User: Which sequence fits this backbone?
């Protein structure tokens, strides 16, 4: 009787501890309605009521697994809210971190992730944990479960080969946009309505054709002009471009830095009769991770007979740093168009150094800020901004575009923790009035060596691609120091050294990384209690073993 009583006591203690700590039970994929694979990590998730989310991570490693929500405008490690889980000596644990630089993350002041289960078998590690969808903590980022086309999280994952949480190789980290509100994280296709209505919307395939990427140099720009001067239906009536779909060949995906679509003016049916509209003007840009683009309802780019444009160029920037030979590319862009006249005729404007007028200008070692001003005299009429995309290269750390009126800043949009590998388009709805000023500021951090402005992947750039309406012919390519105008409206460029900057986080216009003073979020506990939490997990495991020893 005493033994039975002891068994019951031990079992009650185990169940109580397991329930409190969340370590009871085994992983079952059927418990999760959603799953996506990012790199080598399977990510499962489910909502618990309306306030919590539970995830399961599975990877072929016996070391740690990391999961994070990154800064939405970049999506890299700096600016990320990170959870790291592991199973060490049979004991599972999770720790809440945040990162503001490309360095070992910092443990959160308040720990929100709670362990549900941890397993290690057959060379695989599984971690299950849960937390609030929104914690209200400045060291965390919210999960986005809304179902709009622009509702998603920039997710980062990584794995380690041991249980010691430290740096990892670039081959063991991955990033992907995940719309958690969509089944299995699959984005709804923005072009679905166009694809369904083939009577109204047509497709033009813009391509280079089969192309072997050069291996004698690391940077290649491949350009192909296509005249629509004599091509139906562009030769008989104006058409309106309303969407873009980039199809990237799988074998050359790692080498495709970006693709752009540029408008042309052609005097005949031969592609050789085409010339650029402005210098480097683009109406679409694809970068890795970009989903299909549909123009906002009632807007479109005018092209064809009677329009300013009657041809298109596809430009692809190939990056081949390892000088690999024999890589063939067959990527292309599907351009969706219609004869239906939209209410608003769209156009593109580049603010900054859109044509790299500062070619070969050297960026000094250290942190420098480069500012390009598009003066009030440039904007001769009101426009509405639809979206904007900041662009620099590897040394860029932050980009901000400011809108001023009457000498005062009235609005701005920024890319904090900028990472050129994870560029994002920001969808905006902003009005720029005649007489307003736009100014773009790019911050670069050069550790050593010689870095200059230029077209190569190893060089630098600073620009903001802005889609707007209505089209203004006098804007031409853009403004900053890029305009083809010969008047003073082309703007100015100014640089200065930021000698006071000592950390990457100082470069960001963000409060991320600042813990909430009084944390009242769901089930938060202090970082100091993480050690205690691990101890109690060990005790729980010991109680479980004791129970089985008596059985």
Assistant:
């Amino acid at each position: 009787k005493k033994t039975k009583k002891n068994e019951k006591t031990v079992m009650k203690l185990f169940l109580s501890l397991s329930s409190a700590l969340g370590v009871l039970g085994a992983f079952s994929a059927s418990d999760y309605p959603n799953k996506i694979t990012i790199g080598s990590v399977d990510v499962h998730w489910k909502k618990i009521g309306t306030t919590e989310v539970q995830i399961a991570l599975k990877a072929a490693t016996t070391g740690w697994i990391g999961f994070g929500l990154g800064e939405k405008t970049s999506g890299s490690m700096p600016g990320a809210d990170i959870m790291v889980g592991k199973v060490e000596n049979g004991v599972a644990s999770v720790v809440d971190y945040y990162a503001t630089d490309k360095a070992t993350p910092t443990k959160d002041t308040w720990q929100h992730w709670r362990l549900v289960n941890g397993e290690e078998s057959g060379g695989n590690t599984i971690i299950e944990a849960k937390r609030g969808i929104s914690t209200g903590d400045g060291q965390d980022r919210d999960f986005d479960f809304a179902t709009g086309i622009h509702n998603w999280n920039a997710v980062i994952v990584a794995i380690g080969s041991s249980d010691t949480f430290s740096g990892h190789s670039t081959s063991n980290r991955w990033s992907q946009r995940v719309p958690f509100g969509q089944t299995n994280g699959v984005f709804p296709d923005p072009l679905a309505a166009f694809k369904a209505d083939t009577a109204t919307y047509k497709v033009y395939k813009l391509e280079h054709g089969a192309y072997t990427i050069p291996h004698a140099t690391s940077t290649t720009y491949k350009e192909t002009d296509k005249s629509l001067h004599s091509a139906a239906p562009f030769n008989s009536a104006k058409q309106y471009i309303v969407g873009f779909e980039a199809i990237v060949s799988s074998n050359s995906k790692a080498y495709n830095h970006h693709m752009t679509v540029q408008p042309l003016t052609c005097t005949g049916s031969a592609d050789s009769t085409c010339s650029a509209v402005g210098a480097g003007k683009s109406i679409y840009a694809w970068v890795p991770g970009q989903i299909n683009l549909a123009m906002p309802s009632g807007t479109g780019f005018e092209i064809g007979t009677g329009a300013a444009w009657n041809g298109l160029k596809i430009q692809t920037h190939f990056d081949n740093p390892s000088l690999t030979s024999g890589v063939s590319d067959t990527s292309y862009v599907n351009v969706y168009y219609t004869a239906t006249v939209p209410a608003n005729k769209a156009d593109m404007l580049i603010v900054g150094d859109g044509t790299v007028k500062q070619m070969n200008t050297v960026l000094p070692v250290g942190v420098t800020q480069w500012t390009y001003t598009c003066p009030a005299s440039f904007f001769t009429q009101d426009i509405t901004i639809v979206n904007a995309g900041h662009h620099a290269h590897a040394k860029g750390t932050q980009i901000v575009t400011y809108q001023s009126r009457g000498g005062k800043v009235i609005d701005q949009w920024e890319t904090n923790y900028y990472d050129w590998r994870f560029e994002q388009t920001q969808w905006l709805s902003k009005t720029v009035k005649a007489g307003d000023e736009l100014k773009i500021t790019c911050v670069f951090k050069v550790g050593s060596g010689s870095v200059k402005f230029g077209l190569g992947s190893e060089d630098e750039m600073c620009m903001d691609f802005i889609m707007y309406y209505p089209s203004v012919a006098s804007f031409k390519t853009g403004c900053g120091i890029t305009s083809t105008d010969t008047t003073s409206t082309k703007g100015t460029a100014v640089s200065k050294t930021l000698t006071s900057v000592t950390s990457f986080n100082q470069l960001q216009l963000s409060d991320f990384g600042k813990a909430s003073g009084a944390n009242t979020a769901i089930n938060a506990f202090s970082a100091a209690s993480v050690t205690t939490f691990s101890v109690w997990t060990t005790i729980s495991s010991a109680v479980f073993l004791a129970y089985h020893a008596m059985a």
About this structure: The two ends are 13 Å apart (CA to CA). The CA atoms of residues 152 and 402 lie 25 Å apart. The chain is about 10% helix and 40% strand.
